[in-house]
Write a structure and sequence with these properties.
- The chain has one domain: Maf protein.
- About 30% of the residues lie in helices and about 20% in strands.
- The protein has 5 helices and 6 strands; from the N terminus they run βαβαβαβββαα.
């Protein structure tokens, strides 16, 4: 059985397959496919005001187009001192001219002068699962922490170098991959949705 992950990123596909490695359909692991694998070129605009709305938009549209059980997610960083910014705009924070480094440097500038005790933040991910018939399920995962004062670490991407995971004292970019994959917002969201996927696959 094929399951579509609504991405063109094979790294994300591998992450889904790894985190849901125990999933079975008729005793066999499903075949995980991307939009590119299916030749789907249409981009679904993320016009939602929340992570859940964006994940649902993508899951429903691509499930309908592909005829496959589809998983989609939306995720980002929420910083309390900035009223929840960058939130749903995490991947495009500061406009199209910035890369990952530019975005986290903008974040650090906005937090200049904010004390350590006021730099609480979290990574949030919502995963939406849609059947081709439109049956819909969602789950979310949250990784709490705070924003550091300078980037540290070579692993990860996005805001990982400035996000200090609660209980670890180091940034996400300093954590070993196996630890990050255990505590990350996406890992937690996928673990939460696995029983639902198992029920769907069991028919």
């Amino acid at each position: 059985m094929q399951i579509l992950v609504a991405t063109r990123n094979r790294g994300k596909l591998r992450e889904y397959a790894d985190l849901l490695a125990s999933l079975r359909a008729d005793g066999q692991p499903p075949e995980w496919v991307t939009l590119t694998d299916l030749g789907i070129e249409r981009e679904v605009e993320e016009t939602g005001a929340t992570f859940e709305e964006n994940a649902v938009l993508k899951a429903r549209a691509y499930a309908r187009e592909s005829g496959l059980l589809t998983l989609a997610d939306d995720s980002g960083l929420e910083v309390d001192a900035l009223g929840g910014e960058p939130g749903v705009y995490s991947a495009r924070y500061g406009g199209p001219g910035l890369d990952d480094v530019g975005r986290y440097r903008l974040l650090l500038r906005k937090l200049a002068g904010v004390s350590a005790g006021q730099r609480a933040a979290r990574f949030r991910c919502v995963v939406a699962v849609s059947t081709p018939e439109g049956e819909l399920f969602t789950s979310d995962g949250v990784c709490e922490g705070q924003i550091g004062v300078e980037p540290k670490g070579e692993n990860g991407f996005g805001y990982d170098p400035v996000f200090i995971a609660e209980g670890y004292g180091v940034t996400m970019a300093e954590l070993p991959l196996e630890v990050k994959n255990r505590i990350s917002h996406r890992a937690l969201a996928l673990r939460a949705v696995q029983p639902t996927l198992e029920a769907i696959l069991a028919g």
